[in-house]
Amino acid sequence: MFTLLKKDMKSLRLSDGLETKQKLEIYDPCINILDRMLPKISGEKVCRWIREDMKSMMPVIMLTAKVEVKSRIKGFKLGADNYVVKPFSAAKLKVRVEAVLRRTESRCGKLRFTGFMIKPAKGEAWIHKSQLELTHYELKLQHLFM
User: Fold this and answer.
1) Please, are residues 64 and 38 in contact by the beta-carbon 8 Å criterion?
2) DSSP string over the chain
3) Residue 90 CB neighbour total at 10 angstroms
4) Where would you find the membrane-spanning parts of this chain (predicted)?
5) Comparing C-alpha atoms, which of 109, 98, 2, 105 is closest to residue 47?
């Protein structure tokens, strides 16, 4: 299972790596909780795709049953920001999510500059009270420049 958490803690649950990649091309989530062993396309390949092909800095927390140190190292080298071993408590995962979101808060909040506002998590850009129609990449560039 794969979950995209938004700033308001709404989530989108996906069942495999292929569906995950398709949704990531549409949405720009605040954080990814990515199972390492997803069907169709592994979580490892999805994480590598996020970092190398999408060139995204969205936080990734990798979930896995693999407990070996070298597996954890591989997860971090793939681009994971944090690593949670199964079984885990919901409280432990929540604390890890909160810690990652504290470090990456500006990625999901509203950014404003002289009448211009972007909401990266919602994929929206506004000038005064009019919503702009920007492509995913145009929005990412504007976010980067702000």
Assistant:
1) no
2) -EEEE-TT--EEEESSHHHHHHHHTT---SEEEEETT-SSS-HHHHHHHHHHTS-----EEEEES---HHHHHHHHHHT-SEEEESS--HHHHHHHHHHHHHHTGGGTS-EEETTEEEETTTTEEEETTEEE---HHHHHHHHHH-
3) 7
4) none
5) 2
Q: Is residue 78 domain-shared with residue 92, that is, in the same domain? A: yes
Kindly state whether residues 56 and 117 are assigned to the same domain.
Answer: no
Question: What is the pLDDT tens value at each position of the chain, 146 positions in all?
Answer: 445 555 455 677 888 889 888 888 777 677 889 998 899 999 999 999 999 988 888 899 999 888 889 988 998 999 999 999 999 998 999 899 888 888 877 666 667 777 787 877 678 888 887 888 988 888 888 877 76
Same domain (yes/no): 30, 101: yes
Q: Which domain holds residue 90?
A: 2-105
Q: Does 79 lie in the same domain as 122?
A: no
